[in-house]
């Protein structure tokens, strides 16, 4: 169907093999037959959790992110381990990072946040029926949790205070879910 747009891999090599990320450089044939190279990051995928309380508050995190040299406001999230079910990962990450567990989980959507240079995908889940407990942060992980509301988050997005793409998209989804105009699906 889209063959007139497709690029075809001719060959390639792994140019960096890190603990978390891998960088690949491929030679591809363009739709017009010319050859070029594509460099991209291979990423195992991640989950994003939208923790929503019955009173409409949402649970967020503040965490320093080295590449942008600033503390970012984000939803709980984390990398999917090899062969790990994304929902199991979401449940694990919510508890590890925030201490909360949830009794109701719904799949919201899949997003690709950096399609020009990465194959990373993020599976977004809505978590309700939140129950507080102790967090279990990974070694070397430092963050703080806090509560906010969707209207406050929308203001922060508009003001440029919140710029993390998964958090922006998650907030837009929550706005639609709370308004009753969009519905997530049951567990994926």
UniProtKB/TrEMBL annotation:
Its cofactor is Mg(2+). Belongs to the Nudix hydrolase family. NudK subfamily. PANTHER family: NUDIX HYDROLASE DOMAIN-CONTAINING PROTEIN, UDP/ADP-SUGAR PYROPHOSPHATASE. Pfam families: NUDIX. It comes from the Bacteria. Keywords: Hydrolase. Gene3D superfamilies: Nucleoside Triphosphate Pyrophosphohydrolase (3.90.79.10). It catalyses: GDP-alpha-D-mannose + H2O = alpha-D-mannose 1-phosphate + GMP + 2 H(+). Residues 39-170 form the Nudix hydrolase domain. GO terms for molecular function: hydrolase activity. InterPro entries: NUDIX_hydrolase-like_dom_sf, NUDIX_hydrolase_CS, NUDIX_hydrolase_dom. This is GDP-mannose pyrophosphatase. SUPFAM superfamilies: Nudix.
């Amino acid at each position: 169907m889209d063959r007139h747009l497709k690029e075809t891999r001719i060959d390639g090599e792994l140019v960096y093999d890190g603990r978390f990320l891998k960088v690949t450089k491929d030679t591809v044939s363009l739709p017009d037959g010319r050859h070029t190279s594509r460099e991209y990051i291979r990423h195992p995928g991640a989950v994003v959790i939208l923790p929503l309380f019955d009173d409409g508050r949402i649970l967020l995190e503040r965490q320093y992110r080295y590449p942008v040299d600033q503390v970012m406001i984000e939803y709980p999230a984390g990398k999917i381990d090899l062969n790990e079910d994304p929902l199991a990962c979401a449940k694990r990450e919510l508890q590890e990072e925030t201490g909360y567990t949830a009794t109701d989980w719904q799949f919201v959507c899949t997003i690709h946040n950096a399609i020009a240079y990465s194959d990373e995908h993020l599976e977004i889940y809505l978590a309700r029926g939140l129950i507080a407990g102790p967090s279990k942060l990974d070694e070397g992980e430092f963050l703080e949790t806090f509560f906010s509301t969707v209207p406050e988050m929308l203001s922060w997005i508009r003001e440029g205070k919140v710029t993390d793409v998964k958090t922006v998209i998650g907030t837009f989804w929550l706005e639609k879910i709370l308004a009753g105009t969009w519905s997530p699906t049951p567990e994926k």
